[in-house]
DNA sequence: CCAAAAGTGTTATCGCTACACCCATGA
DNA sequence: TCATGGGTGTAGCGATAACACTTTTGG
């Protein structure tokens, strides 16, 4: 490599796109927005934006997420960087995709409306711009992998939840179904759930106990590489 | 989002850095180069370069890899995008890290020398520039995950190899040791190795059979999500 | 009393782990 | 013949998967 400095190299537009997952009890959802700029204005798109020179890319992603949801402290991680030359017909833009997990029932409907955002079932996604469909597919795969070994499923549920809700979430993520007895035994045996005295009485007469995720107990076990499912 | 176009946004330098792994029978190695430009000229660094406007980022990574090794058709995948504002004191550079697996004995020593490149045992890495140490650490973690479920370990071995070489590789990747009988049984039961009639006679009098990875058989099994180890 | 969801145990199978001896050969 | 690494089988254990009935209670 020659002794050149940085000045002679190309600078490129850097975007961030967020795959925002939610769970409403029935299926896994992704939050999409109607794109507000050309090209492809008016089509469905992931929430995104450009990264500024003065901020780190993780900060850029966090900024964009706050913009759309108004929510702070959202679980988020980088997914992949998409950099094909022609991925965006509007110019040479390299996009870094992040995926985020939010508690759908805590999201603010008005803020979402402001951005023309809408939840879509992952199995019924509309046509999306650019390579966004590929991003969602990859994000779903990553979520499946991650959820098997890390307690991030709870990010998609209310703070207190029933075992059936938790099972429903895992079933939605994996698009399969589990035996109730085996699931219950396994998840409780991890020792990271705390049962409350309170019951959820909406969906049954008997009522189902609420549980909360016990982050402290989890931290103690974390080092050993806990297996969730 | 307002109806703006792309022109008003920041453009940023985009770099690619490659974590190149090799295995020489004793330990897992990474290929590092002496940096040829300021800042930090002369220090150890991952092989890297800037992405051009006219090429995709995967192509940029492939180009840089060929530059250093002279080798084509190398296994490579994107690792992570590093974009902290201050990661490079020479300017605002976002770097996309790739990791690659090469057959160390097929590498061309002269080409490596041209670039001041040297293999380092992963346990004895020198001080490296910027966030390159973090990149290597992450790459190693990813390699461990990946190797458990995908047949990419073979990329680090000669085309024909003995079972002991293969076991040595897995032991190096996981920094542990396996029981020879259990390892042999498991790896052979996958049905993706083909035994040759030829024996390796260097390291023992009896001689050990050579095996080759049977890519066709693997492809047949791939859909079901084979578990390597 | 009945409908509807909650909660709970046992058994068979499979995969993993631990463990030790004989084989083939060149020197 | 002997030293060296190559090659092989078995038994115990723990995890997983399959499977159905009883409990609670509001209407």
TrEMBL record, chains A, B:
This is DNA mismatch repair protein MutT. PANTHER family: ADP-RIBOSE PYROPHOSPHATASE (PTHR43736), SLR1690 PROTEIN (PTHR43736:SF4). Residues 11-142 form the Nudix hydrolase domain. InterPro entries: NUDIX_hydrolase-like_dom_sf, NUDIX_hydrolase_dom, WH-like_DNA-bd_sf, WH_DNA-bd_sf, WHD_NrtR. PROSITE patterns: NUDIX (PS51462). It holds the Pfam family WHD_NrtR.
């Amino acid at each position: 490599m020659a002794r050149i400095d940085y000045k002679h190299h190309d600078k490129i537009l850097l975007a961030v796109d967020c795959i925002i997952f939610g769970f409403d009890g029935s299926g896994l959802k992704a939050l999409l927005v109607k794109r507000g700029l050309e090209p492809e204005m008016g089509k469905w798109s992931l929430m995104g934006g450009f990264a500024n020179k003065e901020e780190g890319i993780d900060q850029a992603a966090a900024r964009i997420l706050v913009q759309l949801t108004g929510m702070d402290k959202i679980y988020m991680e980088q997914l992949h960087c998409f950099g094909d030359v022609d991925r965006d017909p509007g110019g040479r833009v390299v996009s870094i995709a992040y995926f985020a997990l939010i508690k759908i029932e805590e999201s603010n409907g008005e803020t979402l409306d402001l951005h023309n955002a809408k939840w879509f079932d992952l199995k019924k996604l509309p046509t999306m711009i650019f390579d966004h469909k590929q991003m969602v597919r990859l994000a779903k795969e990553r979520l499946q992998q991650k959820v098997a070994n890390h307690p991030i499923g709870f990010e998609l549920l209310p703070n207190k939840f029933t075992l059936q809700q938790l099972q429903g979430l895992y079933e939605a993520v994996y698009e399969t179904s589990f035996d109730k007895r085996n699931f219950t035994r396994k998840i409780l045996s991890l020792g990271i759930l705390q049962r409350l005295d309170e019951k959820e009485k909406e969906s049954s007469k008997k009522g189902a106990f609420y549980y909360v995720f016990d982050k402290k107990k989890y931290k103690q076990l974390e080092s050993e590489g806990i297996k969730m499912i």
